[in-house]
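for the writeup, i need someone to sanity check this before i put it in the appendix. the sequnce is what the collaborator sent (i think, or maybe the updated version? ugh). structure was predicted straight from it, no edits. if anything looks off just tell me and ill rerun, i have time this weekend
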Amino acid sequence: MKTRNLRRQFQNSSGTISILAVVGYFLYHLFAGNHGIRAEARLKKDLAQAQEKLKELEIEQALIQKKVRYLHPESLDRDLLDQRVRETLAYSDPHEVIFVHPENPENP
């Protein structure tokens, strides 16, 4: 008699257990899944970092473009050209005196 009652209770509660399992599955993936709330927060953080990096790179690009603009033949800046030759070729005149800035000693 107890076995029948247990079976009947199990059959009556099996639907409830199934529904709870399905709801639990979806709740878990709502928070911890690849497209869940935590993943959205992580993606927003990654997006903010990428936008910050983009701003830095755009500033760097603008500086490089400014230097390149001065290297065109029609607007050649002789000081910039002289600086680039000295940096690239490590060239200096034997009679020149070179001062090294204390904050950047490895780049004479």
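Residues 100 and 107 are 8 Å apart (CA to CA). The mean pLDDT is 82.
thx in advance!!
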